[in-house]
């Protein structure tokens, strides 16, 4: 397990992309990892054959721990030729029948273990897919002979057992053959050995399936959901949240976007949304009130010179906050491209760890879901988070007149250890002032 980032000490193996016996090229992904920051593929650092998986799916692995064994091409070329599977089976028959007129039944006499490669004892290691398939169909894996590398039971072996109709009775799925035939005897199965060789699958309740005796169902907590829960709990427990909201008249901005969006789509190839205008306004306000761009460090407050805006991107499974670095150096068009690129790669699962690091202030757009008011939780350890709510037309008093205007609420949560109402109120008003100043003369480039 490599050191994926400075702050990461472990990662969870989500899914193995390679299985024992598969060839692996240099830099070819061998498994998917889940970290506190982002999902990532782990590339191989050597070329060869995957011999053994040391850490299974769902296991949390510390940095520096071996997760698999890969036999390199150089090692394979210098190693003595291993006996074929046929030779091993033929060699096993005399050992199993020595000293007896016929073959002993598995129930009456323990069978000797097949002489697999000691560096790849895979007989008792089952993949989650094999465990699930066996559990669903009542197949006793102890009675299935594996055809995979090192005697590992594959999905094909379980399907063969199901097709034969022998799923775990008194006789094993691969019954002993007559003495004239060669066969690969299964390892001795005793109650004492069962604890070492069998993996009893946990009862799984599918989403939508009512639990026994009740009108409810359970959903497994994924590693990324567990990480979100941990981070949110840490933020609420450590940061004294305070909250404020202002109304903003976006009528001029709505008209500006309506006039520019078609040409912008044609020229840039992406949609022109309200978010880049909001980010530009936030950057301008942070420049005037840099304390908004800080973190609490117990005996000091650290103010960040770089303005790196985190943007919240949500899916049905999670919310991730990729970072736009040096947002103060980008135009509205540049910010629009950054937002589009990060949102696309987030939903496609193609973010890199660097895309999630270094954020100094978070902006969220809950208005896309029709929300008009929200109380956001601060993205720890930042000092504040701002949300843009949905834009609605409302009657508004303008001077002595009443007009229909496009109004929006901006909600701000802030760390009350660092920030007070006065500076946050002034920051809020500055963002409002910039947003309401957008008009026909606004430059996108």
CATH fold assignment of the largest domain: Chloramphenicol Acetyltransferase
For the record, the CATH architecture of the largest domain stands as 2-Layer Sandwich
**What count of structural domains?**
3
CATH superfamily of the largest domain: Chloramphenicol acetyltransferase-like domain
Structural class: alpha+beta
Calculate the terminal CA-CA distance, rounded to whole Å.
44 Å
Helix content: 25-40%
Please write the CATH class name of the largest domain: Alpha Beta
List SSEs in N-to-C order: EEEEEEEHHHHHHEHHEEEEEEHEEEEH
Q: Please tally the helical runs, counting DSSP H or I stretches of 4 or more residues.
A: 10
Question: Taking Cα atoms only, what radius of gyration do you get, to the nearest Å?
Answer: 31 Å
Largest sheet: 7 strands, mixed
Mean pLDDT: 80
Name the beta content range: 15-25%
Number of strands: 18
Q: Which shape, going by the Cα principal axes?
A: elongated
Low-pLDDT runs of 5+ residues are 91-121, 169-209
Summarize this, please?
With 445 residues, the chain is an alpha+beta fold. It has helices at residues 73-78, 85-97, 128-137, 155-164, 191-197, 223-238, 251-268, 275-288, 332-347, 421-437, and strands at 10-16, 23-24, 29-34, 39-43, 48-53, 60-62, 68-72, 241-249, 294-296, 301-303, 309-311, 313-314, 319-320, 323-324, 361-364, 384-388, 392-398, 401-415. Strands 8, 11, 14, 15, 16, 17 and 18 form a seven-stranded mixed β-sheet that branches. A four-stranded antiparallel β-sheet has the order 4-3-1-6, with no helix packed on it. Strands 2-5-7 form a three-stranded antiparallel β-sheet.
